[in-house]
Amino acid sequence: MASVDLFLEGLGECKLDGVCGDLVFENGQLKGHLRVKRSSLAERYYYEFKDEDGICHTVPFGTSTDPRVIRFKQFKYNEVLRSILKKNRRLLKRFIRAVEKSHYRYDPEAIDALLKPINVDHTGLVNKCPGVISPGDWLKMPYEANGVELDKNRTHRTCDGTRVRSKGEVIIYNTLKMLGVPFRYEQTIRLVDENGMTVKRVPDFVILKPDGTEVILEYLGKIDDDEYLMDNLKKIQLYRRNGYDLGKNLFIIGDSYGGWIDSEQIVKTIELIMA
Prior knowledge:
By secondary structure, the chain is of the alpha+beta class. The protein folds into two domains: 2-130, no CATH class; 156-274, Trna Endonuclease, Chain: A, domain 1 (3-Layer(aba) Sandwich), CATH 3.40.1350. The protein contains eight helices and 14 strands. The strands form five sheets. A four-stranded mixed β-sheet has the order 9-12-13-14, with helices on both faces. A three-stranded antiparallel β-sheet has the order 1-2-3.
C-alpha cells in the first residue's frame, strides 16, 4: 500500500489548466484527441479540440516521432496509469508478486490495451514509467532543434565542440555539463500568443529537473541595449502567458552592466533550479 502511494506521489497529479505548449488542458485533463491521416509515403497526426465556445480547432502535428505527438500520448498514458493505480492501490504488490488478477494490473501492454489505438505509441519514445524518467531517456527523446550546427551566428565553441552564440552561453553550457545537468540547447517550442496564434520560440536552454519537469533558462547578454531588452521582455511575457513563471519553471541569467559575467552566480542559479 505504501509503495503504491509512493509511486502515485512520484507520478503526480496533472495541474495544468488552459493552453500549455501546443496542448489544451481543463482542470488537469487533456482536452481533445489525435487524428491520423495515412498515405503510402507517411502518416501525419492532427490535434483536434474544442474551445470554450464549442468551436473545433485542428492543429497539424507531424509523424509519430514528432515531440508534440509523443507529448500528447505521454499525457494520455499517464492519465490511464493514474486511474489504474487509484482503482487498485494494492496494484504494485501484485505486480511484484507476479499476480495478474485483473486488467487493472500494472503492465505497459495492459495499459496500452485500455488506450484508444491512436494513442498507443509504437515508437518506444513514450516513457512507460512516468514519474521516474531518467535523464538518459529524456536526452534520447527527439525534439525540434533550432537551425543547424553551422549557423553563422554560432561562432563560439563549448567544451564538447557545440557551437553557440555568445561567450556567456559558452560559460552556462560548460557549467551545466560540469554539474551533470541534463539540458537541451536551443530547443524550439511552440506557444500561443495574445491573439491565439501558435508561434515558435527558442529558449537558450531547456533543463530537466530531478522531478521530471522541464525548466527554461534564458541568458541575457546585452542588458544595456534597450531594443534587446524590450524584445526579451515580450518573450518573457509570452512565456508567462503559457504557464512559465519566473523562479518556478523560468529562470534568467544576465550579465551585469558593462558586460561582466558572474560564474559563481551562474552555479548558484543552476543549483537552485535542480534543488
